[in-house]
């Protein structure tokens, strides 16, 4: 059965019909599944600055150990494109749903094994080597997860609710941060002091086994994307080499789209990458209480979740581009205020500035699923969305904590970090201003010609065929 949906120009196109109940299942599955994936991913980042710098890289000395520990956080981002290339290719060739099941199990297995790893004192250099290998597997999985999740949500959505539906898997990211920070804060109470370093940090990693079982149960009953089903029913069955087509036809679009996410990710990874947690609790610095800092990060993740949802909903009414502009302006103020206020050493001020910052982060994040889906033609959309996101994560989030740590160590203060974050935000804003608003464009394969042109504000639209 098909239903009529309108494109950006008011024309109608046909798309397979999905019921309201199915759409709700898809949103629930992509949101919860993505939250589980990012719980695993962010858990490592949080523990990197609290535990791994001592237990896995301790012989390097405190300063170098912290930088190397954050390097392992960033290292996984270098392998996200591999996951994105593989997942994007197979999402365009065999479907979004199968890819999501594979990434879920890969991430869960790697995370659980980290919880079982011996420390440097037990097996020497093999401890950090095995840790890095498992972190790489997390990176491959994370690179493949996001694109398929957001397309499953957006391609099931009614045209006037793409932003709202697409905000579901986006909410999974701050939800993963909230869950990981919350579980770590709970373990800090259950296993305080030395007990946390001895065994308490391991429990959240092993908890991933239960979460993967929950994620599998939820995702197994979800139908494939209606857009992919429509493509697969045709003789051509999509592009034979979607990755090659993407880079041959849309490389400038990939770069600009990646810079949009980089503007958000650089700032977001101050908390999701564990830098704020390490900076605030450093015994040679602010020496704030670990549990209080983890609770502050957890609380700000709730704000991030809320405004991610708000951004998705607002973008359906104001457009993706206008919502991004508002968000980046708010984020710029938050980025400028972050470290000067964190430097006061007051936990309530820390919490307040993180809450304000996450308002901006949410407003530059909730609409991203819909915006990316509306950028690329149907036949290569899986590759376009996944690879653009992966490149953006390298340019933005990958080494942001490492760069911040090096700037603090090199300058003796945080002013350079503030400049770094504000600059990244303005780059994201500039990238958004280059793009036309394509809110509501028809997503089905019947509209490939429209989808292939008219991406940029300046210059003539070209036919990418």
UniProtKB/TrEMBL annotation:
It is found in: Cell membrane. Its main location: membrane. GO terms for cellular component: plasma membrane. Keywords: Cell membrane, Membrane, Transmembrane, Transmembrane helix, Transport. The keyword Transport applies. The chain crosses the membrane at residues 26-52, 64-86, 98-117, 123-143, 164-187, 199-218, 250-271, 291-311, 323-341, 347-366, 387-408, 414-435. InterPro entries: MFS (IPR011701), MFS_dom (IPR020846), MFS_sugar_transport-like (IPR005828), MFS_trans_sf (IPR036259), Sugar_transporter_CS (IPR005829). One of its GO terms (molecular function) is transmembrane transporter activity. PANTHER family: SHIKIMATE TRANSPORTER (PTHR43045:SF1). This is MHS family MFS transporter.
